[in-house]
Structures are given as C-alpha cells and as structure tokens.
Specification:
Structural class: mainly alpha
Low-confidence stretches: 2-9
Radius of gyration: 18 Å
Shape: globular
Distance between the termini: 37 Å
Order of helices and strands: HHHHHHHHH
Helix content: over 70%
Number of domains: 1
Amino acid sequence: MITVARTTVQHVRRTVPREVRELLAVLLTAALHLSWPMTGLSRGLLVVPLIAGWAGHVWITARNDPSAMAGWGLRREGLREAGLACAALLAVAAPVMVATGLLRGAHPSPLMLVAVAAYPVWGLVQQLLVQGVVTRGISLLPGRWGHPVVAVLVSSAAFSLAHWPDPTLMVATFGLGLVLAPIWLRWRNLWPLAFAHGWLGTLLYYFVMLRDPMSGYFTG
C-alpha cells in the first residue's frame, strides 16, 4: 500500500505541473479555512499545521528546484523597493485604523503584542498562497488572461472570499489585495508583504473590529 501511494505521488509530480498542484493545494487550504468553524475546534489547531505544511512544501520544493524560491518571491531582490511601498501603506492606513479605534473606545489587550510578533508568520503563508501561487499563476497565463489587472482582481477576490462570511474582513482583504498584488507583481518580493499583512491585520482586529483574535486562539 505504501509503495502504491509513493508511486502515485511520483507519477502526479511528473505529469502535473507544480503550479497546478500548488493551486489545488491553495483551494484545499481555503476550503479547510472556511469549513473549520463547523468543527468547533480552535483556530490555532488549524493554522499551526497549515504553516508547518506549507513551510515543508517550500523546503522540499526548494531542495529540488532552487529557482522556486525566487518564483514565489522569497528572495533578496526587490526587498528594499517592496519594503518602502509597504511602509508607505502602513504609514497611511495604520494611523487611520488606530484613530478610528480610539474614537470608538478601543482598549487593546496585552495579547496584541503577541499578535504583532506572530501574525506576520501567518501573513507570510497567506501571501505565499495569494501572491506566490494565485497572482503568479494567473500572470503566467497566455494573452489577456495573464494581464496584470486580471491577476490583481482575481487574486484579490480570492483573498476576500477566503474570509467569508465576515463582511468587514472580506472588504478589508479585498482592498489589501488590490494594493499588495501590484507590489508583488512589480518587485516580486514577499517578505515586506508578510509584515504589512500581519500588522495591518492586527490593527484591523483590535482597532476597527474591536476584537481580540488571540483570545481563545488555542482553546476554542
């Protein structure tokens, strides 16, 4: 049985392009993310294995194909330029969200510091899936299907739908996608996007949605 499974996996790797396999894995990840609340289990029990699983995929793939890292945007090139663009985004959006929260009486808990430190890790995985797989995959399509505008709109919509049914998160992630996807297409570097995603997400929860995402994260 193990031999058959191993042979099947090897056959799939040889016959199905990596980009297609990764897109299917992204769809599976999104399905798990959307259906997880029905299990009644804590969100952390899903997120931690997903981070580990995608980290393992990156490590194994990079060992067999070193160019894969650059293809995803996990590289040094473009770091400064993408970092400056993301810094500008943070400089505009962060004060607005903080001011909104303070006017509404927001009182962030000390766990916000944990979110500030940890959220970019999950943000990196999400941006890998959205930009490194979806945006990149669409941009590689022939003709008008691969136009940058199409890639930005489709990946942003997919990013938004992955946060269904929360309307605030859906609107926020669609807007964030409209900004981050062009940055990725221009400089092909994921690292600054992960921090922008994590820090803006933290501020959104604590100052706009007035929710503590870390409370009960591992206890349900």
